Each structure stands twice: as structure tokens, then as C-alpha cells.
Amino acid sequence: MTEEVLGGLAPTQLSGAAQGELMDLCEQQFAQLEKLQNEIILCESDFSDSPQEQSVNRLIATEAELKQWLSTEPELLAENSEVLLRAGKAEMLKLCSELEMVFSCSEAKRDKLRETKVCEEKWLEDKTQVLSAAMNHVERLKMEKEKLSEQSVLKDTKMKIEKMKAYEESLMDCLGDILEKHIPHPQNGASGYKKTKNASTEPEEDLISLGEILEQLMNKVLETPHDPYVTIDNTFWPPYVEMLLRYGIAVRHQENNFKIRLETFC
């Protein structure tokens, strides 16, 4: 402690009495230091060669020294008021320097926290705007949904049905064109369809085309899905019926061979 005071004060700044007192204190400290060094040298010769035992002895000595320091009453650095004033001034300057360092670190930390606060506020503002826009959109959708009346829904449904009917008619027209182009219209007695000897000589009914057969089958499925079978009569040309059955477009009734229905396509 005396060395720190002497290092922080120039000798020319103290009076002769203060310098003399400090020199006496220094001599006392040096004498005590020399005494301690001699005791340490004498103690080292008594140490055991075992590292473990040396560690135990050092621990015991350290604990004893600690107890001694705890029981020792603090002493004044010096009785001279000038020395105490200089020492107090040096300690105050040291403390001020440390406080300035703490203050500088606190300011840097405060600036960093301010930057973080600005970023967090900007992020919160953005999220608030997004939330507000989303809530406005939800409210607008609710209002639009409330404005939709049953009449508008019905009108939209009718328009969709009309579009589906128009699309169905276009498909049927396309199917009819294909059948008319590639499938010949049947004629009475055509394709070797021979009459038996006991057959009636009355004229047969006009045979219907393949498109008309398909139309009857489709209408039957749509009108009476619980009973989709169509009865085969004299207007159905047998080769057409056989073709529909062979290619899996139609199937016969399990109990009545004169009934057929349109195959269920998945």
C-alpha cells in the first residue's frame, strides 16, 4: 500500500515531515518483507519430498495465514494528514478512472439497447400493419358473403347447369357425328339377318341407329338409376347389341337376357 502511494505521489510535492514518515514506513515494510522471505526459506527445507504432503502443508499454512489476517485490526497508512490526503486523492483518482470505464461501457450498452429497441419497434409496426390488413380482408369477405343472397346462388347454379347441358349437347353432337361417319345405319334384312321359315311376313319396325341405342341407355341411367336396364325390342339391331356387349359398353341383366344397361365407368 505504501509503495502504491509513493508511486502515485512525487516526493517534491510533500513536506519534509511527510517524506520522512513515508521513508520510515517503507523501511518497516522492507524489514517485514525480508523477515518473511527468511521464514519462507527456512520452511522450504522442512518440506517433505512427497508432493501430496507438501500440498497439505501449504493448505494448512494458507488457512492459518487467512485466520491471522481476519483477526488483524486494520492500521492507518500514516499518521501525517498530508500523506493521508495524498493517498486519498490517489485512490479517488483511481476510483474515478474505473467509474469512467464503467460509465463508458454502460453508455455503449445503452446505445446497443436503443438500436435493438428501434429494430423491435419497426418489426412490431410491420406486424401490426400486416395484422390490420388481414383483419380488413376478413371483414371485407364477411361483408361480401352476407351480400350474397339465395337468388344469386340459385342464379349461379342455373348458369352452371346450363353450361353443363351445353357441354353435354356438344359431346352428344360429336358422338353422333362419329357414329354417323363410321357406323352404318342398319337396314331391314341387312347383314345376312335371315328370317326363319315361320317368321311373320309383316314388315319389321324401323331399326334405330347405334347413337339412339346409346342415348336410350344413358337416359335410362339418369332418369331411373335404381333400374337402369333397357328392354331389347325389334328396333335394336342385334349386331349393335352384340358389339356393345362384346366391348364392355353394355351388360346384360343377370336374369333376363332381353334387358341391357350401360356399364358403370369409373
From TrEMBL:
Keywords, alphabetical: Centromere, Chromosome, Coiled coil, Nucleus
Gene Ontology process terms (BP): kinetochore assembly; mitotic sister chromatid segregation
UniProt keyword Nucleus, yes or no: yes
Pfam families: CENP-K (PF11802)
Coiled coil: 124-151
Predominant location category: nucleus
Domain of life: Eukaryota
Localization annotation: Chromosome, Centromere; Nucleus
GO cellular component: chromosome, centromeric region; nucleus
Signal peptide coordinates: none
Family under the similarity heading: Belongs to the CENP-K/MCM22 family.
The name this protein goes by in its record: Centromere protein K
Lineage, top ranks: Eukaryota, Metazoa, Chordata, Craniata, Vertebrata
